[in-house]
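Dear Dr. L.,

I hope this message finds you well. Following up on our conversation about the binding site, I have prepared a predicted three-dimensional model of the protein together with zinc ion. For your records, I am including the exact sequence and ligand specification that went into the calculation, followed by the structure tokens. Please feel free to forward this to your student if that is useful.
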Amino acid sequence: MRKSTRRTCRFIFRVVTFFMCLAVLVSLIQVPSLASKKEDVLENYIDRTFSVILGRTASNEDFRLWYPNLKKGSATAVSMIDQLTESSEYQAKGLSTEQTVDVLYRSMLGHEADFEGREYWLRLLSGGVSKTVLVHTIAGTDEFKTFCANNTVKPGDVTITEERDMNPEMTLAVAKMCKSLTGREPQAEELNTWISQLTGNQAGLANFLLRFMKSDEFTNLGYDREITVQVVFESMLERTPTEQEKAEFIDILSHGVSMDFVVDRIAKTQEFSDLCAGKGILPGNIELSEPRDMHYELTGFIARFYEKLAGHVATADELNDGIGKVLSGEVKVTKMLSEVLESPESQETLASNDDFLNAVYEVLYGTAPEGEAIEGYRIGLEHGITRSHVLEEITKSEAFSEKMKELGIETSEEKQVPEKIIALTFDDGPYTPVTTRILDALKPYDAHATFFVVGNRVNPYSESIIRAVNQNCEIANHTWNHTTLTRISGDAVAQQMNDCDNAVFNLAGVHTRVMRPVGGSYSGTVSANVGRPMIIWSVDTNDWKYRNAQHVIDEILNNARDGDIILMHDLYETTAEAVEYVVPKLIEKGFTLVTISELAEYKGIDLQAGEAYFSLRG
Ligand code: ZN
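The resulting structure of the complex is given below.
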């Protein structure tokens, strides 16, 4: 009994032990297998995410990194996807934008993007917006949250921090502009800067574009007018210009206006504001500030002048400077144009005098040179009359005033009449050694004088005549050979006048408009035959008699009054000496030194042929 009991006990003990061991074994096997059943969802999720994004399963190391954190929620689906797509391993794959969209859809939602979704995101991502916007958008959907719940992960989200992502439509527009203008994709940083500029100071899209077009990068591309018009249309209106628009804008650019003007033109169109409204962007407002942009027609005129007569496209500075001065009245338009002509470049461009005349008439009037004066200009130019002087003469015409009026410039405005005006006159010359000194004395003050020349001295001293004309002095008639006119017949008087006049015209291309009878002597016959006003004098310096500079100086300074005509002779060194002293003195005293014709004009006196004038006081 005891023996069998012990056996039974041992048997029971063995059975119990066996079952206990079995239980332990089973539990040893079953505990982990129960655990993995609960957690392989996460494991699978990690593996799937890795294979979608990196094309491989997660390594042990990956698991060690992500598993516990995802499990306890310190990492989220978004933070893992974000980190994986930012990894160098992912970047190295060099996926296309389309593939990126797909990767994000599959990793975040477990399926591919539908057609519309893909198109939408492709447009944004290839337009300069970052994928953060896409991740953030999906992260906000219920579908994503459900997907995460099924995979036992916390969904998470990303914060949008970049400017370019905050205003996707604006980014798209700006990136497109950059591409149209330069042909390159903008960098993310550039986009951020631009968007912050656009949103920061209320500037519109047109202002942004303009700033871009003024950048060195754009300038250095060196586009010609045609391409410039092309890219401006593409960037502002997202289309190519029609042939008509292209022609119109190339013409605008050839006027010499700035890009401000061009951009402003398009910015003011309904098409552009509609386009901006569609994107929720301000179209912008360009404030034209450069003189060349504020006076379109005048700018075009001056630009054409530069192009035709100086042979180069006027620079912005040249245009702004010139137009500013002309409009402020600081410089006469004629003076500005003369300066262009004086450039060596211009001399080279217009090799012959006919080239020059043709160009001037074309620019001024759109015609070939015409009118009586042309012959004179040709003759004068051939003998050394300067182009700028001829231009000055041409621009004294009524037609020129009309032209300027069209351009918004008043040239025929009331001439400011100086308070004290006198005319210095010199008879019996020219005589180059003396005449030159007189002209030298006048020049610094832009003072004018009248030279009553003797016809037979015109050719021997031609350089003095040319110089006097170029200095805006007047060449007047003092007979052919200094004959006393009261002693000869009417016909002979006319002949004396004509011979002298022809000599002057054939040299300088100008006609003598006034005459002075020799010795101041005239009669009815003389008066009837001179064909010009007879200019006598009111102050006689008697320089020929005394040959003393001081005497001449005293006569002038003691007697000169407004409207006086002062008689001298450009034959004597003493006269030259006196003039050198007296010109600055007269200027100092407030006199303006003018020619006879100018004096008459200032005084409103219509000089009559055959009339004698001793002074011109008005
Ligand atoms: Zn004389």
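In brief: The two ends are 171 Å apart (CA to CA).

With kind regards,
A. P.
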